[in-house]
Amino acid sequence: MLHVTLNRPEARNAMTRDMVAAIGALFDAVRDDRTIRAIVLRGAGGHFCAGGDLKEMMASGLKPAVAGETDPVAANSRAFGAVMRKVGTAPQVVIAICEGAVLGGGFGLACVSDIAFAKSDAKFGLPETTRGLPPAQIAPFVVERIGLTQARRLCLTGAMFDGAEALRLGVVHDGYVDEAELSTKLDAALAQVLNCAPAANAMTKAIILNVARQDMDQVLDDAAAKFAEAVRGPESAEGIGAFVQKRKPNWVEPT
What we know:
Blueprint lengths: L1 E5 L10 H14 L7 E6 L10 H6 L12 H17 L4 E6 L2 E3 L1 H7 L3 E5 L3 E3 L13 H8 L1 H10 L2 E2 L1 H7 L4 E3 L2 H16 L3 H13 L5 H16 L2 H11 L11
Parallel strand pairs: 1-2, 2-3, 3-5, 4-6, 5-8
Antiparallel strand pairs: 6-7
Helix pairs in contact: 1-3, 3-4, 5-6, 9-10
């Protein structure tokens, strides 16, 4: 497992450009490492992430766009969207621990996770429009996560809500009230992940994500090709052999 901590507790882990770049670099570095089966994202100091660092954005000067040149503000915004896609499409299982502030970009990170836990008193929201900004690189992932109807309401009101409502909406998959309950539920989820073959999980995740992004015939053709690759690969031989022999496959850690 890889545990990744957003570590700016003094700013409720609001993300700077350097933090966004570091997250992207980390996910690039581990993308092909099948020894890392799950990536757990959490924030330091009792908060997940309060979004982007608006003070840094304003301090950067916000120079006007120059015709014929790349708009630096647009480029910085788009860079965050690219990192969101890297997190969301990582071959590993990405688990988000949502507590304290889960706002803006932090909300977005929760939406691109595979499994998310929310503390009951966490504060979720998309406050960008209350600051005169659109949640530009976040809203598309919110739509994918919870659907258009609820995404419209949340994005266009800046409404704040707690972990119980996040669970009801489908932003997260389970809730917890304290560290002991989280530990039990996280351990159980990780044990389930470790029962799955890493390459098979990576293929499965890619198939699932393609459903909303490709024509269904393309999805099925690609899925068939992945299935054929898996059937001929070492994981299926080991997994089917273990099933027949009534033993655990070699990717399951001994208990």
